Amino acid sequence: MANMPNSEPCASPLELFNSIATQGELVRSLKAGNASKDEIDSAVKMLLSLKMSYKAAMGEEYKADCPPGNPAPTSNHGPDATEAEEDFVDPWTVQTSSAKGIDYDKLIVRFGSSKIDKELINRIERATGQRPHRFLRRGIFFSHRDMNQVLDAYENKKPFYLYTGRGPSSEAMHVGHLIPFIFTKWLQDVFNVPLVIQMTDDEKYLWKDLTLDQAYGYAVENAKDIIACGFDINKTFIFSDLDYMGSGSMRAFCEDAQRDCSQLKAGMFSNRPHQSPYSPPQDPYFRMTRDVAPRIGYPKPALLHSTFFPALQGAQTKMSASDPNSSIFLTDTAKQIKTKVNKHAFSGGRDTIEEHRQFGGNCDVDVSFMYLTFFLEDDDKLEQIRKDYSSGAMLTGELKKVLIEVLQPLIAEHQARRKEVTDEIAKKFMTPRELSFDFQ
């Protein structure tokens, strides 16, 4: 990506806002790519200059979730106001000062979405006849928009479909990337509906230092990992933006657009309602889609938000494909998993065994326990671990051992399924065709 021009001021607050977002992504790309200090410093200075210009033009600080003309998020004046103000979520960055992670109740207020409460979970159980997924039971999928409309459609035997996606920025996915696909697989099974998965390789080509062939290659390799989650080939279509839209004009556009493009990821439009599970950073795109859809004669998509999957180093840090120690990757061996968890998983334990036995550990900040909430199916066992660790009966090493014993077979089983996904199978999933639809 080229540097933002610095010789002429932007003509409007909106242009300034978009320039800041683009420059911020450039800074992150330079840091991730281990650019020289001078190059990074220069990009940071430009970012700060743009933010100063924005403040001068608007009379207020730049906020990534508040474009010019939109009302600013409600200010917090309570004792935890500073912590709340430091929670930062946009399509590129997730940042919090709290070791517990993002405050999701406040995020719901900021997004204007609805909490997935016990009443909604009970309705899902009644409609499907299936026990709610652990991601629902434990609040991992915590927020929604119009989920009741999807349930209305299902109960009245009206058709709908599932939609989610993946931005393929590297060949290897990590366990955090699996969360929306594990849940979407469950949704496909219990509702028995088609699924569309968009691979935004065009976006990654524009924002990352990738060739078109690299971006498309990552899309195909990531698609194989997604297929290995067990999706029904008769009900699932996976498409690459570059492939589906792009032989010819789209590829030509991408080759010319890398200079100063500010691209928004397009949502899927259909005359059938659809439901999209995804993480909060993508919400601005879907808010735009929900705003545009009825204007052009389509229903608004229903949306589901998941909590963030923490890096091994703690909920305050972000997983990165450039840092192999920030997460468990789907290519890791059993030995690598054990080493990473033991060496890098942030602990909520005390400084000494004596103190830990006396005062207990803190499950709210302990990454091993957080990971177990995602991957350990047994609710009773998870609760017993929470009690034992909080009381000091279980030590940090013992907790990490439990996590290792959960992750090693999970990753090994995924790797075995992944080996069975040939290029031919991937091609079938990525070929436009009629999907099976059981609604009358």
Describe the fold and architecture.
It contains 19 helices and nine strands. It is of the alpha/beta class and 440 residues long. The strands form two sheets. A seven-stranded mixed β-sheet has the order 3-4-9-8-5-6-7, sandwiched between helices. Strands 1-2 form a two-stranded antiparallel ribbon. The termini are far apart.
Q: What is the rounded Rg? A: 22 Å
Shape: globular
- Measured by DSSP, the beta-strand proportion falls in 5-15%
Helix fraction, binned, reads: 40-55%
Structural category: alpha/beta
Largest sheet: 7 strands, mixed
Strand order within the widest beta sheet: 3-4-9-8-5-6-7
Low-confidence stretches: 1-11, 70-85, 246-271
Name the helix and strand elements from N-terminus to C-terminus, one letter apiece.
HHHEEHEHHEHEHEHHEHHEHEHHHHHH
Mean pLDDT: 81
Number of helices: 19
What is the end-to-end distance? 49 Å
**How many extended strands?**
9
Produce a short descriptive summary.
It is built from 19 helices and nine strands. It is an alpha/beta fold and 440 residues long. The strands form two sheets. Strands 3-4-9-8-5-6-7 form a seven-stranded mixed beta sheet, sandwiched between helices. Strands 1-2 form a two-stranded antiparallel ribbon.
